[in-house]
Every structure is written in C-alpha cells, then in structure tokens.
Amino acid sequence: MASLHHATLTAVLTFVVLVSGAGIVPGTGATSVGEQAVSIQSDALDAMESVDSYRAVTNMDVSIGANRTFSNVTTLANRSLDATSVYSTDSNYTTHVVDDRAYRNTSDGWEPLPSESADVSDPARAQAALLTAATVTDFQRARTNGRLTYQLELAPRNSTLAGILADQPGNGIELAGSVTVLDRSYEMHVNRTTHRVQRVEMTLKFRHRSEIGRATMVTWFTGYNETVPTVPDRASLEN
C-alpha cells in the first residue's frame, strides 16, 4: 500500500487482527510487574473489543539524515457498520472501506483500490493486537489529558517497530530488514475507569544502512462509541 499515502500511515500500527474477548492471553512478560499489570492488560483488551466506534488522530515524524517526513491522519471507525473512513490533513484524499473493498475520492471521483487496502485502517484493532503480543515491562498511575490513566510501558519486538518505519511513506525505508533499532520506548495510556486506550506514544532511535534516524509517533483516541459519519454505499462508490 505504498500508493495509499494516508492509509499507509494508519498502517503505522498494522499488526494482526484483534483477538476476541474470550480466551485473551496477555503477553507473558506482564507477570514481571505483578498480577495487577496482567489485569490491566486484560481489561484493556476486553474494553477495546467491545468498542463500536472511535476517533483516532495519529502524528508521526521520521528523520533520517537530512530527510524528514511528517504525517497527520484522522481515522473515524465504525465497526458496527464494518466501515472505516480515513482523512489525511496533508493530502486531498479521503478513503472509505466498505466490506472488503477500499475506495479513494479523487478529482475524477471514487477510485477502487486493491482489496488488501481494506486491512490498513483500524488503529484500535492494531493497538489491541500489539498489547496482546508485547511484554508489559512497567506500569504506573498517571493523569493523561486531565483523566486518570494507567501508563503502561511495553516492549514490542524490534521487528514490529522496524515495520512501523517501513510502512511510513516517503522516508526512504522500503524494507524493515534494513533497520536496526538502537533505542526505543513505547507507552500506552489506558483510562482507569473505562479501560480504553487513550493515548499511545512511541520514540525510536535507529540505524538505516549507514545513517542514524529518529522517529516519534503519538496517537490520541477519543469519541468512543459516539456517532461517526457513515460511508457511501458500494453502489454510489462504484458509479
């Protein structure tokens, strides 16, 4: 999906499908910070599974030598309608995913995109998948945007973080295998009352070939279970 500029950023967080609420098994490393971390991890996964709709705003800044790319994408997701809308502030494109097909709104009207494009625009699903797979190395009570939260420190695989960079368009990284992660941090802020993910922060220092690079990513989640715009039906998209 290198050709899908805005949706590719949303693939910043593309991992695997969200596990169902039943039978959730948190990352085994969670036990290193006690049973409460395991409970927080499981509660967050259950809460994210039950969400019908949400808004996510993702900013990502990647610098490698003199090259710098910055992206800002707002995602409005409505799972109950099996539909997702992705809006990018740095392009004129709007993408709608309906069932198993993705469409981009251009000056020539709606343009069908490859079917795999429909898999790249659900940040909440991706965060839940990462939370399932990653080790929780520490947690503390915090306040995020005025709300009481648990601040979880995660330890994702380096290959996962390298994949995030490779999915970011325009930064010159085409293969995750060409990235060596030198230092990283990944934090997830979970609302203490609702157990929903509220904010995600990532910082990376890495080597790409012979150059040192740095990346930051922040995603805010809001508007859980509020009404979000519905997408056009398939007939109007294809006309």
Q: Your description of this structure?
A:
The chain is α+β, with helices and mostly antiparallel strands and 239 residues long. Helices cover 20% and strands 43% of the residues. The chain contains 5 helices and 11 strands, in the order ααββββββαββαβββα. The chain has an 11-stranded antiparallel sheet. β7 and β8 form a beta hairpin. The protein is globular. The chain starts with a helix and ends with a helix.
Q: Could you tell me the mean pLDDT?
A: 78
Rg, rounded, reads: 18 Å
Work out the helicity level: 10-25%
Query: In percent, how much strand structure appears in the residues?
Result: 35-45%
How far apart the termini lie comes to 24 Å
Shape annotation = globular
Quaternary class = single chain
According to DSSP, the number of beta strands is 11
**Poorly predicted segments:** 1-32
Number of distinct helices: 5
Order of helices and strands: HHEEEEEEHEEHEEEH
Main sheet specs? 11 strands, antiparallel
Q: Which secondary-structure class do the elements indicate?
A: alpha+beta
Query: How are the strands of the biggest sheet laid out side by side?
Result: 6-5-4-3-2-1-11-10-9-8-7
